[in-house]
């Protein structure tokens, strides 16, 4: 029989300390990073366990975000940003949300007036994902009464800068308006949108006029001007699934998720988490370099793949929703990250029918004030990347105007002729 070996007490204590250090060493060495720190592939492994505003860097990155940093040279500066919302939106939410109802059988919402229809959503609610997307669709403060903007789209291929195009994006909103006249209850439409190219000359006048209805099962009316026929023609009701120009997004991808929630087969809540997102984006422009990637200094045009946009980001809690489109849709699924308080869609991750990663969309919000004096969040910059095609589209909103004094009579299909 072997004799037990008695270790000195000091040895046991030393072993305990060593074990504790090994188990907790990484957290003991973690640091709170200062604002201004830039996350990149050069330092991600070194700082992933460090924190910013109490959240580890690793926990603030989705799997695809981490992949983009390591494999596509994405860089993210950290910043603390103002997240306050206009009290008008808060007051409308408090006043009207109590009368809003969701019907799971028809997947429709009734009783909506303004603000967020479902300000409080339980993760255990079987309809939580649907309610999140209705909050975004109806109540997000990204939507003003109406919105006009000169939009510059900059495209890139695997070799770098490809082209710049100027478009007009002009949208009138009929539901949940905070500025100007109240919602018109007896009209069945929610938005009327003019989306037309103005340069270069060979594409001038290309675009659409779309009326989106606020009636379940009623698809959009979309019109296009046919130059060869010199006539305005109606498109298919499924045009919301079609690509836009030569860009890396569908009509459905404008603002990340540009569909009535019931047009998707389902919107399933995966859960809540924190990610890095932009809420206070400032547009910088060098008009002397118009028509080049240098026109917008936030584009990282010095390092491949040349389409990355660098803007400060801050931690935000989001709902993660998996949206399943109808079978005729090009996508297999779209994962959308929606702010848990403001219901802004910051990011979309698209997968093909085989479940393989395809595209990502990043929407960078900024603070704007309409003519009504109401503060909104609206994205001055966004990025759409098609990783299969090695192609990307950045957009930049130049000189936007919010809460214009225009009415329904200014928005008809015939307006497309004025852009020719």
Features:
disordered N terminus; 14% helix; alpha+beta; 420 residues; outer membrane lipoprotein receptor (LolB), chain A; 19 strands; 13-stranded antiparallel β-sheet; 2 domains; two-stranded antiparallel ribbon
Give an overview of the whole structure:
It contains five helices and 19 strands. By secondary structure, it is of the alpha+beta class. The protein has two domains: 37-77, no CATH class; 128-419, outer membrane lipoprotein receptor (LolB), chain A (Clam), CATH 2.50.20.10. The protein has a 13-stranded antiparallel sheet, covered by helices on one side. Strands 1-4 form a two-stranded antiparallel sheet. The chain is globular.
* Major sheet: arrangement of strands: 12-11-10-9-8-7-19-18-17-16-15-14-13
The profile of the biggest β sheet is:
13 strands, antiparallel
- Overall structural class, as computed from helix and strand content, comes to alpha+beta
CATH architecture of the largest domain: Clam
Integer-rounded radius of gyration: 24 Å
Total domain modules: 2
The helix tally amounts to 5
Q: What is the helix content?
A: 10-25%
H-E string: HEHEEHEHEEHEEEEEEEEEEEEE
State which percent range the strand residues make up: 25-35%
Uncertain residue segments: 1-27
CA(first)-CA(last) distance: 100 Å
From the 3D structure, determine the CATH topology of the largest domain. outer membrane lipoprotein receptor (LolB), chain A
CATH class of the largest domain: Mainly Beta
The beta-strand count equals 19
Shape field: globular
Provide the CATH superfamily of the largest domain: Lipoprotein localisation LolA/LolB/LppX
Mean pLDDT: 89
What would you call the quaternary organization?
single chain
């Amino acid at each position: 029989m072997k004799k037990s070996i008695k270790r000195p007490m000091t040895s046991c204590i030393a072993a305990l300390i060593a074990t504790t250090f090994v188990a907790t060493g990484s957290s003991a060495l973690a640091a709170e990073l200062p604002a201004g720190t830039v996350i990149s592939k050069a330092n991600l492994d070194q700082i992933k366990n460090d924190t910013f505003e109490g959240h580890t860097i690793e926990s603030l990155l989705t799997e695809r975000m981490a992949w983009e940093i390591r494999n596509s040279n994405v860089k993210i500066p950290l910043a603390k940003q103002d997240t306050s919302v206009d009290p008008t939106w808060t007051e409308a939410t408090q006043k009207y949300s109590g009368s809003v109802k969701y019907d799971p059988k028809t997947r429709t919402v009734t009783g909506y007036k303004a603000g967020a229809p479902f300000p409080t959503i339980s993760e255990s609610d079987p309809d939580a994902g649907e309610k999140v997307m209705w909050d975004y669709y109806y109540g997000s403060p990204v939507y003003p009464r109406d919105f006009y903007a000169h939009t510059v789209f900059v495209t890139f291929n695997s070799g770098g800068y490809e082209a710049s195009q100027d478009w007009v994006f002009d949208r009138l909103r009929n539901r949940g308006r905070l500025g100007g006249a109240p919602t018109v209850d007896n009209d069945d439409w929610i938005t009327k949108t003019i989306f037309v190219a103005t340069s270069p000359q060979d594409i001038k006048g290309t675009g659409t006029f779309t009326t989106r209805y606020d009636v379940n099962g009623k698809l959009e009316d979309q019109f296009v001007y046919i130059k060869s026929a010199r006539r305005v023609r109606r498109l298919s009701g499924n045009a919301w699934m079609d690509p836009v120009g030569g860009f890396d997004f569908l009509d459905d991808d404008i603002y990340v998720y540009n569909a009535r929630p019931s047009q998707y087969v389902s919107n399933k809540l995966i859960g809540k988490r924190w990610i890095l997102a932009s809420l206070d984006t400032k547009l910088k422009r060098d008009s002397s370099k118009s028509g080049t990637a240098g026109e917008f200094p936030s584009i990282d045009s010095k390092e491949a793949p040349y389409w990355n946009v660098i803007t400060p980001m801050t931690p935000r809690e989001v709902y993660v929703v998996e949206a399943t489109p109808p079978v005729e849709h090009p996508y297999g699924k779209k994962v959308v990250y929606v702010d848990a308080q403001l219901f802004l869609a910051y990011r979309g991750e698209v997968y093909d029918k085989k479940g393989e990663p395809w595209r990502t969309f990043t929407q960078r919000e900024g603070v704007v004030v309409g003519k009504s004096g109401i503060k909104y969040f609206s994205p001055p910059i966004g990025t759409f990347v098609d990783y299969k095609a090695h192609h990307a589209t950045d957009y930049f909103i130049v000189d936007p105007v919010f809460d214009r004094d225009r009415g329904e009579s200014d928005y008809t299909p015939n307006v497309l002729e004025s852009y020719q």
